[in-house]
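comment on this one:
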Amino acid sequence: MNLSRPIFLLATSLLPLLLLATTVAASSSQTYFPLNHGDSKLYRFQVNGANRFSRLTYNNAVGGNGVFVETDSIDGSQALYTNAAGALTMPGVILSGDYLWFANPLVVFNDETISNGGKSFSSVSTTYQGVHIFITVKTTISKVGTIQVPAGKFQDCRNVSFDMVVQIYGTSVPLIMHNVWTLAPRVGKIQVEVVDQNDHYLDTSELISGTVAGVDVRNLQWGPDLTPIYNILLDD
């Protein structure tokens, strides 16, 4: 029996996954929140019993080396993220299409907290069009094991409770944003729970399809260890 062709097919099918694993292996923050130009993820949620869809896209930020813009198709909102020095950070915000860069980036989580769980707190003071703004970010991270969504079953996931408070000087009521993300290794957000300012649950969007670094997310539904991929392919 000539094994050269099956071995060749196995090697070529695994190549994109192996390259992706090599890229993110150096940082847990990169593993759980991968950032690549052209990444796109489609989610499904329900409103009054009817299916609705949203898409998150990631592209290089203008003037930001290694910074990526995450755009939400629902309302066009945009966030700036970068993976640097073993942490996922927000180096700035986009306001009315303008980039506002912080003197010190806000830390969402670092390698330690995303790997083992824990809490982080970060704050920054900045000025926009002469108005002073104070922003804080607080995250709580916990391990949640295996989570199944329409795109597949993902192992070793993390829940990230994300709270951002924006206080504009001279106003008494701050702007509060609260989200809970479920992050999967090499994929990023597979679920996003949304609650209002009173912590009332609104909805959950679940990943149904997408690509990360050109790899279909359905091919990334195994845990950090790539061994199960070999087992499945070799058993066929």
Notes: The first strand starts at residue 40 and ends at 47.
